[in-house]
Design brief:
This protein is of the alpha+beta class. It is built from nine helices and ten strands. It has two domains: 66 residues, Phosphorylase Kinase, domain 1; 194 residues, Transferase(Phosphotransferase), domain 1, CATH 1.10.510.10.
């Protein structure tokens, strides 16, 4: 089905069709333990988290047995973007934010949210159901552990990195000066995803990514001029440079639900 730098995913056809993720143990990517822990904590308990059926170790490889989905959000949007109505976009965003909210309620930070890691499973009448997946870079946050030393690490995918991760990449000592809600790195990544779902592009250029003064406000005002002020405000908040100014995902979900309700009425 696919492979990355550290793991491969296969489709297993049997009594129940499942996805099998194989992670070689002892590789430089030590992702099996955090992913296994996250899936054990989260999965099969929320419809917007990919279901987890168990694991086994074989020949030095960790095999994670998971729910088989039909595609991922990146592929889905590539295939369906043209002609897609806004209500469908908000429906997917609400589902994804519901999964993230549940994940955060269990004190787990994903740290690699992107369209490829939001899976899509088709329900009745081909209705897309969004499910958060791939917890290989996740981190279970404990209140006694410093935000600076744990949740702000140079992991994830560049285009979805929060500004504080960029600062640490440029200056490792910057980690000592960072404060904010520990899950805000996920909020920023989800803001990038939201912008991309509507516009098919990122809210910043490569040069702007390295700017310490860049804000998304101007681009949001320009490219979302036909959208409601409440949507523009929450998107600007999600993409705030200061992690303390980003709203919790529960607030984001509530606003998306309000906008969808207005669209449907």
């Amino acid at each position: 089905m696919g492979s990355g730098a550290f793991a491969s995913v296969y489709k297993y056809i049997g009594f129940i069709n499942i996805a099998v993720k194989e992670i070689p143990k002892g590789s430089q990517y030590n992702g099996s333990e955090p992913e296994l822990n996250a899936l054990t904590t989260l999965s099969s308990k929320h419809e917007n988290i990919v279901a987890f059926f168990g694991h086994e170790e074989k020949d030095g490889t960790m095999c994670l047995l998971m729910e088989l989905c039909d595609t991922d959000l990146g592929t889905y949007m590539t295939d369906k973007r043209e002609g897609m109505v806004e209500a469908n976009i908000f429906s997917i965003l609400i589902q994804a934010s519901s999964g993230i909210e549940y994940m955060h309620s269990k004190r787990i930070i994903h740290r690699d949210l992107k369209p490829a890691n939001i899976l899509i499973k088709y329900g009745d009448n081909e209705t897309p159901i969004a499910k958060i997946g791939d917890f290989g870079l996740s981190f279970e946050f404990e209140g006694s552990i410093s935000l600076a030393t744990k949740s702000i690490s140079i992991v994830g995918t560049f285009n979805y990195w929060a500004p504080e991760i960029m600062k640490v990449m440029q200056d490792p000592n910057a980690v000592k000066r960072i404060s904010g809600f520990p899950y805000s790195v996920d909020t920023f990544a989800f803001g990038v995803i939201t912008y991309w779902m509507f516009k098919g592009e990122f809210p910043f250029s490569l040069e702007e990514r390295f700017s310490s003064t860049f804000t998304a406000q101007a681009k949001i005002n320009e490219h979302f001029s036909d959208k409601s002020s409440i949507l523009k405000d929450v998107l600007e908040g999600m993409l705030a440079m200061n992690p303390e100014k980003r709203p919790p995902i529960a607030t984001v979900k509530a606003i998306f639900q309000l906008v969808l309700m207005r669209l449907e009425n």
